[in-house]
């Protein structure tokens, strides 16, 4: 999400959870529903409070958080959060139609981090199943359709990294920076996480 208040990936997750909830939530509950660590959730809450997007309700012994729906930027922020979810849903639907399913399909980089600008590409990591050749015409047709769809949906060019399963596993094991980033902050659209493919716990 590219927001007027500069919210990050973790802040987007926390704010999105608050907007979807009918009641205020504790920091612990937010960490649970977003899948973030408690420290990451708390840091996101601090920044959201500083931006005025989140309010605190002190109900001893608990501290509850709720979105500040009166904030002038909240409507725009909420709409952008929905845009992210709509893009994820569209991609999930597209990949579900593929005749050859990927071992993993992850959107990463500036789009998943919420720092994309109008000139940013949509960075996509697609991991092929074992023994599938990169030049398989059916596979290449799918990747071509992906690029066309992303251009139509977002106006952005797709930057696709197409990896074989063995290369993905070895690259993740060697802590290739872009694979570490994709695992840490990417959107897992289909298949397994890189950690799961490599036989590690996330």
Write the layout of secondary structure elements.
Blueprint: H1 9-20, E1 25-26, H2 27-34, H3 38-50, E2 54-59, E3 62-67, H4 74-96, E4 104-108, H5 110-113, E5 122-127, H6 137-154, E6 158-163, H7 165-173, H8 177-185, E7 187-191, H9 194-197
Parallel strand pairs: 5-6
Antiparallel strand pairs: 1-3, 2-3, 4-5, 4-7
CATH topology name of the largest domain, in short, is Beta Polymerase, domain 2
What structural class should be given to the helix and strand makeup?
Answer: alpha+beta
Count of domains: 2
What is the number of helical segments per DSSP (H or I, 4+ residues)? Answer: 9
- In CATH, the architecture of the largest domain is 2-Layer Sandwich
What is the straight-line distance between the termini? 24 Å
Gyration radius, rounded: 18 Å
> Low-confidence parts, pLDDT < 50 over ≥5 residues?
1-5
How are helices and strands ordered from N to C?
Answer: HEHHEEHEHEHEHHEH
The averaged pLDDT comes out at 91
Q: Say how many strands there are.
A: 7
| Assembly form of the protein | single chain
Portion in beta strands: 15-25%
The largest sheet, given as strand count, sense and whether it forms a barrel, is: 4 strands, mixed
């Amino acid at each position: 999400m590219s927001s007027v208040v500069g919210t990050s990936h973790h802040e987007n997750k926390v704010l999105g959870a608050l907007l979807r909830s009918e009641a205020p939530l504790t920091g612990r509950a937010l960490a649970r529903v977003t899948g973030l660590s408690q420290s990451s959730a708390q840091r996101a809450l601090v920044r959201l409070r500083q931006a005025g997007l989140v309010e605190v309700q002190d109900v001893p012994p608990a501290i509850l958080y709720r979105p500040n729906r009166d904030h002038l930027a909240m409507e725009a922020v909420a709409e952008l959060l929905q845009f992210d979810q709509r893009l994820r849903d569209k991609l999930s639907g597209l990949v579900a139609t593929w005749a050859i399913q990927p071992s993993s399909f992850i959107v990463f980089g500036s789009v998943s981090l919420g720092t994309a600008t109008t000139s940013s590409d949509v960075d996509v990591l697609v991991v092929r199943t074992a023994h599938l050749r990169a030049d398989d015409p059916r596979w290449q047709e799918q990747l071509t359709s992906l690029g066309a769809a992303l251009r139509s949906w977002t106006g952005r060019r797709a930057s696709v990294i197409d990896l074989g399963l063995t290369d993905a596993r070895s690259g993740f094991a060697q802590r290739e920076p872009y694979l570490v980033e994709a695992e840490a902050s990417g959107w897992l659209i289909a298949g397994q996480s890189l950690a799961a493919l490599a036989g590690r716990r996330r």
